Amino acid sequence: MTFYDDIYPFYVLQRTSFIFSGRLLTIILVFLVLAVSLLVILPGIRGKSRLFWMFRIIISLFIGVVIVALNFTNDWAEARMTANATYKSFSNVVVNAEIGLHVGLYGINVTLKGNPVVQFNETIDYNEMFSWQEPMEEEYEEALEKGLPNPILYIAEKFTLASPCGLIYQYRYSGRYASATLWTAFCCWLLANILFSMPVILYAGYMMMATSAFIFFSMASFSTIMNVPQCVFSIGTKSFVTEYSHSFWLALATGVLCAIIGILVVLFYVLVPEKIKEAFSVGVDIYEDEDVSYGEGYINTIFLDGVTISPVTSKLKGEHI
To answer: What sections of the protein cross the membrane (predicted)?
Structure first.
């Protein structure tokens, strides 16, 4: 194989373009199984509480799956543009393609999609992952050995230790702290669900507020990447910089939702504690508000010789009358 005469160092095997993250698919499937398992019990719940339990299960599992999934998404920050760029090294061939940079907590994804997809007898549809967990230099060397297109190599080089931009330091540490606080938020969410099933609803509300606080801490940690001097990615005659994307705003919405739930639970517990306990079916005696009539009773005194009898019978008889 040679680099000349428009023959490029292609992959040895036919590549498959990125479709969906396996980790995210596993997380979604696990929570879907939990949701179905919990929703199956709804027919056994009578009255208006059935609807309340359904919303409770759906909202709780939604918060849980979002917190876990945000650790593995690659769109906390994004940048994309369409430009004419040199396709491969040792060649002057220029392709028109959409170039994208997707930043996650554990690494970056660099995408390259041709416009049109098939150009020069090759399908231009790349999605390459570069992880912080491995030394970025090794990942970059593997990309060079694969013969990836120049735009992907250019962006990946910006995240190496030798790059003057120094992006790797801030992005890697910001992602690690953001991930750690998200896992702490997940633990708070688990504790909140346990406490909601016990007669300590007030503390469950506090834990939901703690969940929202740690989600906001993770966002603040990731936001520190914007404090470093912005490194401009220039390809061809165009350039771009990263901006907050879907996962960041989803984290914000989930944090606000947790805060609202926590504040409402605390307020209702202070204002109407019995009502909220009844809503969550904890600490409520089913006979507390019912008028129980025992009717008229008779006592066989043969078996009660020497036993003092309290005037319960006469009292019950008077209430019955």
So the answer is: 20-41, 53-72, 182-206, 213-236, 248-272
